[in-house]
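Predict the holo structure. Ligand: guanosine-5',3'-tetraphosphate.
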Amino acid sequence: MAEDKKTKQEIERRRTFAIISHPDAGKTTLTEKLLLYGGAINTAGSVKGKANSKYAVSDWMDIEKERGISVTSSALQFNFDNYCINILDTPGHQDFSEDTYRTLMAADSAVMVIDAAKGVEAQTIKLFKVCVMRHIPIFTFINKMDRESKDFFELLDDIENVLGIKTCPVNWPIGSGKEFKGVYERDTKKIATFRSVATGGAKSAAETDYTMDDTELKTVIGDVLYNKLSEEIDLLDAASEELDMELVSKGELTPVFFGSALQTFGVETFLKHFLSMTTSPLPRISDKGEISPIDEPFSAFIFKIQANMNKAHRDRIAFMRICSGRYENGMEIFHVQSKRKLKLAQPQQILAGDRKGIDEAYAGDVIGVFDPELFSIGDTLTIPGKKFSYEGIPTFAPEHFCRITQSNTMKRKQFVKGITQFAQEGAIQIFQEYTAGMSEIIVGVVGVLQFEVLKYRLENEYGCDIRLEPLPFEYIRWIENYQEVDLSKLKHTGNVKIVKDMKERPLLLFVYEWMVQKTIDDNKDLHLKLVEFQKN
Ligand code: G4P
């Protein structure tokens, strides 16, 4: 009984979220500052890899080290204010991949970082769509207020119009760039003023609290900004949305915070508000109905598989999100898809490429386990006697395609093995033309960097040289009713390609979006779909 109580407490203090942003908006810097608060790292600069500094805590592959970026996602755990926080790291650079999307399937909420000078950008839109699909709460951090920013109201309009989500500013900036003086907290009506500090290891910019009535405030921020702020506060109070937590929880309204991650300004207040507004792990849908995170003993699903993380061991790590109960090292679990009972080997949390063996973990946590080539993405793990599976994980439509051919056909076996491995990891999707054998493979990816990762890993891990020939396709559709469709009679323009996936399901590749609609119009009985759910 005491154990149950502890499990409940542990689960209730869990907060598991992902940070999403367009490259360079400041996701890494914000993550780093959050980790600093939690004492998980000691110096700023240890998250992001730069030529002259340490590499990112989440970097581990050689290619990442060479480029100083993070290709694969990992989970970072730290404690703050009695919360146990799991940040799921989603790659933000050109290394955008399906992994990035899938990580969002494991998160309970998302933090969207937006560059104040740029507003909503392309990759944020893509990631945002996945959050919407899941109806998870989204919190916005408008970053780089210490630089010239767009008009603040325009930034809110941008979020509302481009993303279609309501906004409610929790704080409001006073000036930006050289004129950035601080933020006004709308709930406490207090003003935290800003003074730039040397960055690097510094924990935070100097902050002093004022109210609007303090005479000193005018001296600090100047008459012009004071008057502007007064007007804007009135405008916000009259016109902005209420902070309706019901809408926040459904992902229909985003609380907005302004600050500077680099200057560590507005980060702590953001973290505190965010933690109080987000929930601990919620029930998840399975084929047997909702599964309670607290009442149901251990269950988890696999959202990511990464092979050869440690070259010396040639291992394969499956990352799982625990959805209910408690995991204890050595306990017997049930792998629903293979109907096998097993013990997880080497359960670990991974930080900075360091693996930390774990004794226990709770709903909300992400753990990596050694995978004896048994697990697939989307699989469910429970305890013996419990047979249910969590909803499948969608396969997101790739947007870039290459034909790959092997330079050295002697290494055929390794080539097929490597390609199959990467497809199982979900980093790439493999397609074949109906007329070609395995000698010509079409690879589709969500982010172009995956092509380089593929080439690099095939060379380094499997000793295979390949040639990549970019193909012009950008749009892909699965044929929903393929059993009823005669592919040879399909009417389409010359540059639509019919291919099949690894499970022999046919799909169509298009160069332009209008071709999708034209093909649908020309073939009345054809049903196309954008997302394919993996059923294991
Ligand atoms: P990302 O993970 O979203 O790609 O962004 P990252 O945190 O790497 O930040 C991108 C650049 O923006 C970095 O500069 C970073 O220092 C800077 N930055 C982040 N937050 C702020 C902020 O609040 N204010 C200002 N002024 N800059 C910010 P860089 O020159 O690319 O790298 P570095 O050499 O400074 O590390």
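The mean pLDDT is 84. The longest strand covers residues 299-307.
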